Each structure stands twice: as C-alpha cells, then as structure tokens.
Amino acid sequence: MPAALSMVPACDAEEPLLAESSDRFSMFPIRFPQIWEFYKKAVASFWTAEEVDLSSDARHWDTTLSNDERHFISHVLAFSNELISRDEGLHCDFACLLYDILRGKLDESRVFEIVSEAVDIEREFVCDALPCALVGMNGDLMSQYIEFVADRLLMALGCKKLYNATNPFDWMELISLQGKTNFFEKRVGEYQKASVMSNLNGGAATQHVFSIDEDF
C-alpha cells in the first residue's frame, strides 16, 4: 500500500472522489461527467467588472435612496446583484452534487443540526442589517425567506424539509430562472462565453469526426 494511502482513513479511501488513481493529474479520461459539466458552467458564466453598469449608482445613492435604504444596501449590496446571486447558486449546486456522490453521508439529524445553526446565524445577521422595515421587505419576512432557502437546500441534499416555509418574496423566484433578464440591470445574467458549453450538447461530436476513408 502506498504511504499516502496508509495515512488516509478507511472511510475516506472508499470514497470515489478520494480514490487513488494513476491518471489523477491529467484531465482525461473524465471520470465524473456531472462534475465536468459544472466546471464548464463555471467557465461559461465568467464575468468581468465591466459587465456591471455602476454609472448611475452614485446619483441614486445621493438623491433617491432614504437613510434606511442606504443602511440596507451598505450591509447586503450583493443581495441585489444577479450575477453574484447566480454564481453563489452555482457554487451551492456544485456542493450538493459532491455530497450526492459521497457514499458515507451524514445522518439526517446531523444535517438538520448544521442547517438550523446556519439559519440562526443568518437570522442574527438580518436583525442587525435590517433594523428598519423596508417596503415589502422586513426582518420577519427575511427570516421566513431564510427558512425557505434552508428547506430547499435540505431537499437538494436528499433530506426532508425542516421548516416547511413558503417564499414570502415572489419576485425572488425571477432571480433563479435561467435566462431571465434582470429588471434592474436590463441585461441577461445567464450569459455564456462563446462555444464554452457546446461540447456538452454534442456539438463537438458532430463537428470533429475522425475518418481514414479519404481517397489519395
């Protein structure tokens, strides 16, 4: 047995993702197509600072927003940016995929314990970031939304719902819809870099065909 493997716990050595492989330093052959697909999605959704138009933000900050709204934006600026929201969703989905591949999963009670602790921490943050009620969004509604997101995460991990909460913000559903244009930025957030995802749709298979039947 290699020295490196002797230091790995037996439970970890049985995991497909941690299995010793002589070709682990090369890209091909692809052992986990779903993980490769998530990698290609991450490449396709790469964005630059120039993609986000901030030209009007200073004027809106000085002339449009109230003090309460400025306080909210100062604490949770990323909440209103679709590109960041999309990237965080991609990270979450990828983590759920990795957990699904694992053979040795946590007990459901332990998963509930971790998620409920995270919900409590998020609630504490909301009470600090949202001490004032905004139009259509306040601390209580935000707390309910946190529980709704936690239930969705539990379902993605193969567990039962813990809070059975409903989504208090119907407009939040628009952010997670692929290809939906953000009504704030007036642009499509779910864009793809040219040809990055084409290989996953069988495009490369039809364009690059190896043949030796050519006449010379």
From TrEMBL:
Biological process terms in GO annotation: deoxyribonucleotide biosynthetic process
Q: Which InterPro entries match?
A: Ferritin-like_SF, RNR-like, RNR_small, RNR_small_fam
Molecular function, one GO term: oxidoreductase activity
Q: Name one Pfam family in it.
A: Ribonuc_red_sm
Cited SUPFAM superfamilies: Ferritin-like
| Superkingdom of the organism of origin | Eukaryota
Mark the transmembrane ranges.
none
Q: Which PANTHER family match?
A: RIBONUCLEOSIDE-DIPHOSPHATE REDUCTASE SMALL CHAIN, RIBONUCLEOSIDE-DIPHOSPHATE REDUCTASE SUBUNIT M2
The family classification in the record reads: Belongs to the ribonucleoside diphosphate reductase small chain family.
Q: What is this protein called?
A: Uncharacterized protein
